[in-house]
Write a sequence for this structure.
């Protein structure tokens, strides 16, 4: 049995796999790499069968990223599980470092760290996400925002017995959903340094997470219909629930506004309009709060008496 199993879902992108696999193997001393071919229709199967030192799982029909992750977890043997997208790169030795920290805190379910943008130069840490890594009881913080890069996480296989696997119906936020369910039951620890090089989705990307409007709509429905109905949330004081709802709404609105600006910079005006319309439709109050925070300091300065 391996110490840590790295699950790499892939779909018709065979040119990316060797680099991701090599980085996963170099990230620890006892690593099992499980590649899940999620119904690829090109030469991915042939490429995978030619690769050494991996466990290859072939899905005849595309199951989506969550289904592929579940298949990889079921085929793996490690005490600890890590995720890696086929276009991301694990940094050398980082799995060993995270597993050691997790073993020092047996009550914790997972450890996460920072991701380094693949196109960045990391000037002063500005290309790292998140720039600061909270730890401990993160349930309410994670309800408001997903600040945990999936490729940076190592979690205990045993904790899945209390939470279940990745939810296939919410591909794109399935990792966020699992972090919330784990954080509802267990502490989370952080490792504040980069462990993965992450390719941020662009507006023209075919990655699931690149569809900002669709992802925000999906997260909003999951928040209202499931996350706020977890026992941890139901049993909480109403003020805490309301605060979580307000923060979630503001974060979703801010994300859509940011995506709108990024779309404009790529010349995609219609996509920017969709993002802004969704912000107004789904999170009008959150958008208003964000705008007020932006203009309030200026308004306060305008009301101050002029220096004599």
């Amino acid at each position: 049995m391996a110490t840590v199993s790295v699950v790499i879902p892939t779909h018709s992108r065979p040119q990316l796999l060797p680099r991701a696999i090599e980085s996963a193997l170099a990230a620890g001393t006892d690593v099992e790499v499980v590649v899940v071919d999620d119904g690829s229709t090109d030469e991915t199967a042939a490429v995978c069968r030619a690769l050494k030192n991996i466990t290859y799982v072939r899905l005849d029909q595309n199951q989506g990223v969550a289904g592929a992750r579940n298949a990889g977890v079921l085929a793996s043997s490690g005490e600890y599980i890590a995720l890696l997208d086929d276009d991301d790169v694990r940094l050398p030795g980082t799995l060993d470092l995270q597993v050691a920290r997790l073993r020092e805190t047996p009550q914790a379910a997972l450890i996460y760290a920072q991701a380094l943008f693949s196109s960045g130069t990391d000037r002063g840490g500005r290309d790292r996400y998140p720039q600061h890594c909270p730890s401990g009881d993160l349930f309410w913080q994670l309800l408001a925002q997903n600040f945990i890069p999936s490729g940076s996480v190592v979690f205990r296989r045993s904790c899945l017995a209390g939470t279940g696997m990745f939810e296939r119906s919410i591909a794109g936020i399935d990792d966020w959903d699992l972090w919330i369910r784990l954080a509802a039951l267990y502490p989370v620890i952080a490792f504040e340094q980069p462990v993965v090089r992450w390719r941020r989705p662009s507006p023209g990307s075919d990655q699931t997470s690149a569809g900002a409007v669709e992802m925000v709509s999906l997260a909003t429905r999951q928040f209202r219909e499931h996350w706020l109905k977890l026992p941890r949330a139901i049993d909480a004081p109403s003020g805490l629930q309301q605060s979580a709802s307000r923060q979630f709404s503001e974060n979703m609105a801010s994300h859509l506004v940011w995506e709108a600006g990024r779309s404009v910079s790529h010349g995609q005006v219609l996509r920017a309009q969709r993002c802004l319309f969704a912000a107004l439709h789904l999170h009008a109050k959150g958008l208003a709060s964000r705008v007020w925070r932006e203009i309030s300091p200026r308004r306060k300065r305008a009301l101050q008496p002029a220096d004599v």
Remarks:
- The chain has a mean pLDDT of 87.
